[in-house]
Amino acid sequence: MRFVPLPPQALECLLNGDLTAAREVTGVRLSDWFLSDDVTWLWRMRLDQIAKDPRATDWIVRAAVSVPDEVVVGAGGFHGPPDDDGMVEIGYSTDPDYRRRGYAKAMVAALLLWAAAEPSAVTVRASISPENHASLATIAGFGFAHVGEQWDDEDGTEFLYERPAR
């Protein structure tokens, strides 16, 4: 699994429904899923985040490309750069056409390698709805420990899982 940046220009293209231009910007064949309601809210949120904190550009969502076949299977990244305590939170989503094939686990593994290579990242967090059995199964076996829960205005209760970045 490798991650291809979705720079602000690509996110703008996706929000404008211009998949061809977004593909040109990224250099990969983004699927129609990148224009779906499943993820377009995320492009707007991340553009707003970059406007407030340009450092986020290097940390947030990217296209997830399977190796060696070079198929874009979803998106993954972090919710932003490490906070003052060195915490980064992972986020990932698999295009429905590619679910149940191990790509989400491959994304988590690649995100953990990315975090481990960043000296400023100390802890990796995952926040998951208790009803999201697929994501709970995805992080199993990666050394995450359940550390609590939080309330998310959009998703409701989320379980918090953490593990050392290295």
UniProtKB/TrEMBL annotation:
Spans traversing the lipid bilayer: none
UniProt domain N-acetyltransferase: residue ranges: 20-166
Keyword Transmembrane helix on entry: no
CDD domains hit by this protein: NAT_SF
UniProt KW Transferase keyword: yes
Keywords annotated in UniProt: Transferase
One GO MF term attached to the UniProt entry: acyltransferase activity, transferring groups other than amino-acyl groups
PROSITE patterns (UniProt xref): GNAT
Pfam families xrefs: Acetyltransf_3 (PF13302)
Name of the protein in its database record: Acetyltransferase (GNAT) family protein
Organism the protein comes from: Couchioplanes caeruleus
